[in-house]
Amino acid sequence: MKIEVSDYNSQKIHSYNLLSLLIIIITSSFFSFLIGSGFYGYGVDYYAAYHIPNLKWGGIYDRYGYAVSTFTIEGIHLGVHIVTFILTVSLGFLLREFSKFKQDYSIIFFILLYLVSIHTWPIIMSTSNAMRQGLTMSFIFLVLITSNRRNYFWMILFSFFAIFMHKSGIFLITVVFFSVLINLLSVKFSYKSKMLINFFLGVVLLISAYYFLYSSNLYNDGKPSKIINGDFRWAFVLISIVYVSLSFLFKSLLSNPISLSLYYFSFISPAILMNGLNWEYERMGMMMLIPYILSMGMFLNKASYRFYVIIVFLILLLLTIYMGMYASLV
Known about the structure:
By secondary structure, this protein is mainly α. The protein is built from 15 helices and 2 strands. Strands 1-2 form a two-stranded antiparallel sheet. The relative contact order is 0.12.
């Protein structure tokens, strides 16, 4: 009987993997076609720079981001199609990874969540607006997935792509690699010991990051950089505080490299804001918002988790529309 149940579960997981992969490929292909064709419109950054064919701008950490975003062959601008496809594929894999955490193999729910989430701010505003950040965000998603699976070859490979698409990549990759290391070193520690050690390290990282950024003199002439389409600073600060606070109650938020990466990001990222880099802080928050949403409900049971993620993504979709982000796609 146990063997039959095990075989049934294996078949169910295998079927889910194949169907979800097919859905991810089809959805990503169709969505990239719609975005690239201008069905939703193009962002301000597209008209400011990304419409230029095969743009050769930037330094070592974002030159390839420009190259991919503006890739053009025989007058056909393929960059938007490519960026959107990579974004949508990586998001699909991230959603699938979290569904496996909860042993949730419902294809219908996966499709619903997938279709809603690709239309929310972090994705839709990265398809033709924050394209280089979107590329780095995509590869960060893949790095998080492979780190959780301990597939270090692919983790390192995706890390290189993340780093050289946008300069934010080196910061985020450093956080992930540090989290992977700490997760490996603390595997035999008790939950209480992990909680205290991680909190101490988080505070040290916050202080270190603040003074590193301060000494780098990145604060522009004493004037904070501007947040676009609203002020999201305190929302992201609140998310960081809530995430760290929940870690004292639920060990799932410290149990794997994905959640631990978000935990340390919650400490380090406010140092960006404290140095007046508001716009940079907003973009960093945008890049990590979806992993935050998925991770913050991990302590819920399967049914409650389904309700939580669909409601939160629907709210995020409404906020995306309310804040005029679709209106900026012209």
